[in-house]
Amino acid sequence: MALISVEGLATGYESRLLKDDISFTVEEGSYLCIVGENGSGKTTLMKTLLNLIEPVSGQIRMNGLTHKEIGYLPQQTDVQRDFPASVKEIVLSGCQGRCGMRPFYSRAEKKLAADNMERMGITELKDKCYRELSGGQQQRVLLARALCAAKKVLLLDEPVTGLDPRAAMEMYEVISGLNREGMTIIMISHDIEAALKYATHILHMGSNIFFGTREEYVNSDTGRFFLREGGVQA
Amino acid sequence: MINTLIEYLRFPFVRYAIIVGVLIALCSALLGVTLVLKRFSFIGDGLSHVAFGAMAIAGVLNISNEMLLVLPVTVVSAVLLLKTGNNTRIKGDAAIAMISVGALAFGYLLMNIFSTSSNLSGDVCSTLFGSTSILTLTTREVVLCAVLSIASIIIFILFYNRIFAVTFDESFAKAAGLNTEGINLLIAVIIAVIIVLAMNLVGSLLISALVIFPALSAMRIFKSFKKVTISSAVLSVVCALSGILVSILAGTPTGSTIVAADVVCFALCCAAGVLRGKI
Ligand SMILES: Nc1ncnc2c1ncn2[C@@H]1O[C@H](COP(=O)(O)OP(=O)(O)OP(=O)(O)O)[C@@H](O)[C@H]1O
Ligand SMILES: [Mg+2]
Asked: Is residue A40 lining ligand 1, measured as CB closer than 6 Å?
C-alpha cells in the first residue's frame, strides 16, 4: 500500500481551479521530485497535500501517516519585521508534532534539535535573532526545523534556494542520506540535474502532467522536451 | 510619605488590591507579546470597547455582578472578531472598527438614558479610564480577578511552546498537525478575559496600553521570544507596582499612573536599544 496516494486531485484557490486530474502515488522510502515551470502549481499542490488549502475536488489518501510525522520546508516564510525569535527556538518548534499533549520539550527533542542544527552547520548561530541572518542562513534554519518535524516524510519546496553551491551540494547529500535511512522525500526543484541524480520518481507539472519513475521520465516525450530545453544530457 | 504608605498597607484590603493589580499586569504582558506579534493589537482595542458597552448594559439591567454579563459578551466578540479577521484582513479591520465604535456609542447612550446615578459623567469616566482608585474594588471582584489571572498565567505557561509555534509561523504549525484554530481560539479567549479584568485596573480606554507597551519595550532590547516574554512580564509588573504605589501616595488615578509608568519605561527601553546598537 502506498504511503500517499493522490487520485484525480484538482487544486486551486477558493474553489477557483488551477490544475486538475493530478494522480500519483508515493511509496514509503521513495524520493519524488516535482518539476515544472514557474506558476505551474507545484507549491499549490504541496500545500494541498499538507491540508493548508482545501482541494477543489479529488482525493488524497494517507496510509499509516499523520501530519505530525511530516516535515515541511515552505518556499517562502514571511516573518514580520522585528519578530524576536532565536534560531534555537525556531528549530525546536519543529519538534512540536512529537510532543502530543506534553506542554514542554523533552531532553530527547532538545538533543534532536541540537543535532539538526549541527547537521545544517548553524550551531554557532543558535542564539542569534532569526531576522538578522542572511537569506541562506535563514533557509538552513528552516531546513533544520523541517528535519526536526520529519519522522516519516519530508516535503521540501525548493530547498536550495539561496544556498551557495557548496551548501546546496551538502544539502542534497543530507537529503539523500535521510532517504537512504528510510525517510520518504517529496521535493520541488528547478534543479533538473539534481532531480535526475537523486530522485526515484518524477512528477512533471505542465500543460500535461507526467508521473513515473526517473527512467520512464527520461524516455518520455515530456521529459525529453523539458530536458532538452534545460540543456541537460540524459 | 513612607508612613502613609505603611499605614495604607496595614489594611489587608490594600494589599489584596496591589496583588490583583500585579497579577493583571503580569498576564496582560504575557499575552501582549503574542498580540503584538500576531498583529492582533487592534483586536485588544476593539474588545475593550465591547467590554465598555457590555458594562453599560449590565448597569442598565441592574445586574449586581457585572462580570457575569461582561465576561461572556467579550469572549464571544473575541471569537467572532478573530474569525472575521482571519478570513479577510481588510474586512476584519472594518468590522472591528464598526463593532468597537458602535459599542462605545451604545454604551454611552444607554448609560445616559437609563442612568439612575446622580454622577453620570463620573461613572462614564471611571469606566473609560478606570476607577480613581483600585481600592474601590469589592472583595468578590478581587477574588475573581486573582483566580482568573492566575488561571490565564498557568494556561499561558502550559501552551507557551504551541503559542510560539503558531505566532511565528502559522502555516508550518498547521502543516505539522498542530490545531492552530484551537490555539488561536484559546488566545482570543484569554485575551478577552484579561481585557475584562484589566478594565477594573485601568479602564477600557487604557487597556491597550497595558497590553502593548511592555511587549514593545521588551522588543527594543531583546531578540528571543523567551527573553522578550519574560522581560515584558517583569517590566509590566514593575510599572504596575510603581504606578499603584504612586497613585496611593499622590492620590492620582491608578490607571493613568500605571500607563504613564509604562510610557516612561518604553522611552527608557528605546534609549537602551539605541545605545546597545551603537556599542
Ligand atoms: N494565495 C493565492 N491565491 C490565489 N492564487 C494564487 C495564490 N498563490 C498562488 N496563486 C496562483 O496559483 C498559480 C500557481 O502558483 P504556485 O505557487 O503553485 O506555482 P509554482 O509552481 O510553485 O511556481 P514557482 O516555481 O514559481 O514556485 C499561480 O498562477 C499563482 O498566481
Ligand atoms: Mg513554488
From this structure: yes
What is the ipTM metric for this complex? Answer: 0.88
Topology (CATH level 3) of domain B2-278? ABC transporter involved in vitamin B12 uptake, BtuC (1.10.3470)
Distance A94 CA to ligand 1 centre (A): 25
d(CA A31, CA A48): 19
Domain ranges of chain A: 77-150
Q: Identify the sign of the CA torsion B164, A114, A76, A184.
A: negative
- Provide the number of CB pairs (under 8 Å) joining chain A to chain B: 91
CB contact under 8 A, A94 and B173: no
What digits encode the pLDDT tens for the residues B98-155?
A: 777 887 788 888 777 776 666 666 666 666 666 655 666 777 778 888 899 899 999 9
Beta bridge partners of A19: A11
Residue whose CA is at the smallest distance from ligand 1 atom 17: A43
pTM of the model: 0.88
With an 8 Å Cβ cutoff, is B88 touching chain A? no
Task: With beta carbons less than 8 A apart as the criterion, state whether A109 and A92 touch.
Answer: yes
Residues of A in contact with B158 (CB under 8 A): 103
Contact assessment for residue A32 and residue A185, using Cβ atoms and an 8 Å cutoff: yes
Q: Render pLDDT for B181-222 as a digit per residue (tens, 0 to 9).
A: 899 889 889 988 988 888 877 777 778 888 889 999 999 999
Model confidence pLDDT, tens digit, residues B53-90: 888 888 777 777 777 888 888 888 888 877 765 555 55
